[in-house]
Amino acid sequence: MSGPTIRRRQLGRQLRQLRDAAGKSSRAAAEWLDVSQATVSKVENGKQAPKIAHVRLLLQLYGVESPRSEAILRLAREANQRGWWTAYGDTVPDWFRDYVGLETDATELWTYDAELIHGLLQTPDYIRAVTAACNEESADFDVECYIDQRQARQDRLTSSNPPLFSAVVSEGALRRMVGGPEVMRAQIQHLIELSKLPHVTFQVLPFEAGAHPAMVSPFILLGFEEDPDMGAVYLENHQGALYLERPDDVRLYANTFERVRKAALTPKKTKDFLVTLGQSM
Q: Pfam family example for this protein (predicted)?
């Protein structure tokens, strides 16, 4: 079953469709619930889980009867469940929790990284080194809890129902001495081991590839069970994140990833590259 983040998105989409079918405006829905139009918009866009009582009232306003109403209410209950990541408190920023929920529900992930190795592929020592560099002024930051949270995310790759995972990383991220030679040798060996998994494809984009279409920024594409195509693009910065879901935007990034993947070393040549690089450190 899909997790609460996807259920919230599904619920919002269905409520919007029911409102349109009933010929009601978002203002009318807001007045009926005695909430703001902004709240209705957040619910319909999957940004906020509604109260079950509010869903009952909306179904009444839209004239929805059983068995459809029962199915919507069941979806609403599932959308209000807590995700596993809420147990990690302050180590998961509010703006990142939506992404973790989407990542947990995704059936396919495509990632391109230029400066660092993707979080799902990092070793604990690599995580410590990156975290130390990014949080040197925050003495209260719980590094070990952050690592536990990251490893909980990584568990999906070795679970009984893992996503298809395709990662392309720039050669520069592998040559950067994050934590020193010993940490990087262990990280490279970890990548070699993960790349043996049948659902994981790891490729290196070498310097010799020259200019390429993903030079502007790293990105992540997420695919979901109910959608035959990739469903969303995730772009992150220091203060938050941007989600792109318009089909044209998603297609643009999917095309960019396909071109980068084509320019990268094949998985077999990538493994040879990693072995040689690890031995040279």
A: DUF5753
150-199 pLDDT per residue, tens = 898 899 999 999 999 999 999 999 999 999 999 999 999 999 999 999 99
Count CA atoms closer than 13 A to 235's CA, side-chain side. Answer: 10
Verify cis geometry, omega within 30 degrees of 0, for the bond prior to 67.
yes
Q: What is the CATH number of domain 4-79?
A: 1.10.260.40
The answer to whether domain 4-79 and domain 86-280 are alike in fold is no
Q: Which of 218, 217, 247 is nearest to 232 (CA)?
A: 247
Strand partners, 233: 221, 244
Checking DSSP bridges between strand 108-113 and strand 241-244, what pairing results, if any?
Answer: unpaired
| Total-model pTM | 0.73
Residue 215 to residue 250: CA distance in whole angstroms: 17
The interaxial angle of helices 26-33 and 37-44, nearest 10 deg, is 110
Report the pLDDT value the prediction gives residue 175, as an integer from 0 to 100. 96
Q: What is the pLDDT of residues 54-83, one digit of tens each?
A: 999 999 999 999 888 988 898 888 777 765
Domain covering 86-280 in this structure, CATH number: 3.30.870
Domain ranges of the chain: 4-79, 86-280
Task: With beta carbons less than 8 A apart as the criterion, state whether 51 and 57 touch.
Answer: no
